[in-house]
Write a structure and sequence with these properties.
By secondary structure, the chain is an alpha+beta fold.
């Protein structure tokens, strides 16, 4: 009679698991340090319409004018649609005194209703928002929705002025390294500043402030500085191809390595932000760790790649499908549960792989999960559901 092997974790391997979790958390926090800090301390359909709309009439065919003239025309046509966003937050200190913190960033008008696309980190924690388009006139605004996973957010101008300039959307899947780009924003509070450059790289992996991967970021040498966050990265036709989000800089200033979130991600995210106030992504409801990283730390596991399930959330899709996490035997030893090796035939080696795969799925989809369980491989069907915990929007102070 054959015997099914049961793998156990020694005390040393349990320690490895704990340390690995800590290192992962530290790594995510370090990655988030790349985000442009635009805030200072106390001391749906609209997207489709914008994309299909005509390019501003003031922009000539770039092939018929000089590069200088193209810069001038793009700026004149698009700059009126670039918003200067001011944020205010309030914090209570140990003695009960309320301290006021202010920050600023940029955004792009995406529809005539006054919806403005910006970065999530620009408005994160803000309790009061205002928008201006040059001059002294300001308009109060409120948060419509935010997605920390892609660092995108939509705010809405209250009682927006007539004749808003809508920034048209391009196609970030058709970009090539070397093509000209223009950035308009409010670096260091200098409203509607134009910088130019080229696309320096594509498919750059960057991370949002919460540590989630943002795939296929656009790298540019157009100067991007604090305050540019949320502003448009444009092509020579005046179409937005990216949302300026991060810089890579030891000193916090521009060194010609900036990153923008591709506009095609915004096309997918923004309609949900406007409709629901959040992006409703399917979740497994399981905490996982990379097998490869655990092996590097000295753990002994029965497979060389995949995702070890540490725990399963009660009432989650993972629990409903019978996925198993770590458990404790009667003698106190830790028993392995399932190790996810692939989903729908796609191999998984890191948590980022799992996030990317789920980001392509819809709530209600049924996926096939191949797990290593008790010495053999088993395929487990799982119906994806929405997470039960909903994000709440920041309170508005009028």
């Amino acid at each position: 009679m054959s015997r099914t092997p049961v793998y156990q974790l020694s005390g040393r391997q349990i320690l490895v698991l704990s340390l690995s979790s800590a290192f992962i958390a530290i790594g995510l926090a370090a990655a988030a340090a790349l985000i442009i800090t635009s805030r200072h301390s106390a001391d749906p359909s609209a997207v489709i319409k914008a994309e299909s709309g005509p390019v501003n009439a003031g922009i000539s065919d770039p092939a018929t004018v000089s590069d200088e003239q193209n810069n001038i025309e793009v700026y004149k046509a698009i700059a009126p649609g670039v918003a200067f966003i001011n944020t205010t937050s309030y914090q209570q200190d140990f003695w009960g005194n309320v301290q006021e913190g202010k920050g600023n960033g940029s955004g792009s008008v995406i529809d005539p209703n006054g919806d403005v696309l910006t970065n999530y980190h620009v408005i994160e924690g803000a309790q009061k928002l205002s928008v201006s388009f040059g001059g002294d006139k300001t308009y109060p605004a409120k948060v419509i929705g935010g997605d920390p996973d892609t660092d995108l957010a939509v705010i809405r101008i209250e009682n927006p002025p007539a004749g808003l300039t809508v920034v048209p959307l391009g196609d970030s899947d058709k970009l090539v390294v070397g093509q000209k780009v223009l950035a308009i924003g409010n670096p260091f509070g200098l409203d509607r500043t134009l910088t130019t450059g080229v696309i320096s790289g594509l498919q750059r992996p960057i991370r949002a402030v919460n540590g989630r991967p943002i795939d296929a970021a656009i790298q540019t040498d157009a100067s991007i500085n604090p305050g540019n966050s949320g502003g448009p990265l444009l092509d020579k036709y005046g179409k937005m191809i990216g949302i300026n989000s991060q810089i890579l800089s030891p000193q916090g200033g521009s060194v010609g390595v900036g990153f923008a979130v591709p506009v095609n991600i915004a096309k997918r995210v923004v309609p949900q932000l406007i409709q629901f106030g959040e992006v409703r992504r399917p979740k497994l409801g399981a905490s996982t760790m990379s097998v490869a990283s655990l092996l590097d730390q000295g753990a002994r596991l029965p497979v060389e790649s995949g995702l070890l399930i540490r725990s399963v959330t009660q009432g989650s899709p993972a629990a409903a499908s019978g996925l198993k996490g770590l458990s404790q035997a009667n003698d106190g030893s830790i028993l392995l549960g399932d190790i996810i090796e692939s989903i729908d035939g796609e191999k998984l080696t890191t948590n980022d792989d799992l996030y990317r795969l789920l980001d392509k799925k819809q709530i209600g989809d049924t996926i096939q999960i191949e797990v290593f369980r008790g010495g053999k491989r088993v395929t487990v069907p799982l119906k994806l559901q929405a997470p039960t915990n909903r994000r709440t929007q920041p309170q508005q102070y009028q």
